[in-house]
Amino acid sequence: MMQNQVSLQNVSFWRRMKSERIGYSPFHSKTANLNFINEVTFSANSGDRIALLGNNGAGKTTLLRIMSGIFKPDSGTLFVEGNVHALLDGGFGFDFRLSGRENLKTRGVIEGMSRSEIREYINWCKDFSELDSYFDRPLTMYSQGMIARLVFSANAYSFNGTLLIDEGLGTADANFTAKALDLLQQKYASSPIVIIASHNIEMLRSICNRGLVLDKGTLISDAPFETCISELREQKLN
Amino acid sequence: MIRLKVVERIDNFAFTARREVRIFLHLGWRDLKSRYADTFLGPWWSVANLLVIVIGSTVAVNLLSGGDIWSSAGNLALGISLWTLMANNIIESTEMFISERSLLLNTHLSELSLILRIAWRNLLVYFHNLSVVGIIVIISGIDGLYRLCYLPVLGIVATILVLPISIVVARLSIRLPAIKIVAPAIIQFLFFLTPILWKQPTSGAMALVGSFNPFAWVINISKTFVFNEQINVVQSISLLSWLLVAVLSAIFAKHIFRYSRKSI
Q1: Residue of A71, A97, A109 lying closest to B37 (CB–CB)
Q2: Can you tell me the distance from the alpha carbon of A58 to that of A203, in angstroms, rounded to the nearest whole number?
Q3: Which of B105, B113, B172 would best serve as a mutation to test chain A binding (most A beta carbons within 10 A)?
Q4: What are the residue boundaries of the structural domains of chain B, listed by start?
Q5: ipTM of the assembly?
Q6: Which residues of A touch B38 (CB under 8 A)?
Q7: pLDDT per residue over B192-240, tens digit each?
Q8: What is the pTM for the complete model shown?
């Protein structure tokens, strides 16, 4: 059986940004390296349920993007064993002028599914989202709740391997929420490693056993979840 | 051991290439469906648009120059359809990183695939336009209907030719957002320096302009193939070398776009 592991060794990620513009010329501006992730080291193994904690701009999403391979680290090493499934922005690639079916087909192609897999994927999403006739109508005709249902279904379809989630998976109305949460619990339970970046402490408490606290791109704590929460509280008090 | 590694790398490359090709072909087609969703004529609107432009410019050019309407209509239809294809590829590339930010930040899709997606959707529009171009070219008079077979090939060549420009423009648009405003103006200016509304002379200033303008090479070579005009050897060689540049830019696109994803 394949062992799942995500390991980061002194990983840094920066971006050259204009800090000051001189005059009106776009060629004459001062640039400086802005560290988004600074020398982060940690390792996640099978069974870990990790909460990524920190204020806005702490580097949680960037770190998830690095782990998923979308961003390449500028220094340090990233080691990933097993599949990684990243759910960062649920509605990416959706075109509102097209129907739910057509958007899911695109999502399937982007995810590299075969034709038969795409058919299965679409049928599953149609059943799960309960959008009925709206499923074949343009997204411009959907309510916010309907879009949330479609986005949730598109992202919650079966996946295996390490699961990276940004801000949890938003759900829709009360009826759908119970069904969606139930499915999510199953997904979290079956994934070998789950790493979630969120501000929703109650949701994280129900899932995570370990926490990583980031502050301005630097990992300041890697400890059991409750310890991290206490540290965060102390930080806020100070 | 080394041989195994090489085979593995080739295998990985083939797998990724197949996946990326499938994605950009799908996205290009989807863009067209989305652009013309719920419209009466669908992609044929672009054909109607081209027809109006060709009729308008043919009448205007012939009123000014007093030439034969039917013979110049074919030249204009061919030139304008190829120009539209090349210009749209470049202009749309300037906005690619902005409009597809979410795709780039949430998937492993390469930047080159997004450029090729634009190229593919514009090529699809061009193929639709060929229905009108073909008819006008026949009416203009060509020696042999087989020459119509060159039209799709010329579109593909024109698309490959603008690939390096699209790549560079897309990359620069991250650092210099003003490019998306400046590019259409430059393209508009280049339109008048390209022998579409006029025929390139063999000597003089405009001949010199044409010899340094890659768009002129495409238009002139296209006319050579379709209307059996005299072949310009220098421009043919220039075009071939430019095509080599295009292929190299596609191969090295990964390096050109190296830091682009983190900069958007």
Answers
A1: A97
A2: 20
A3: B105
A4: 2-263
A5: 0.82
A6: 97, 138
A7: 998 888 888 878 888 888 788 889 888 988 888 888 777 777 778 888 8
A8: 0.85
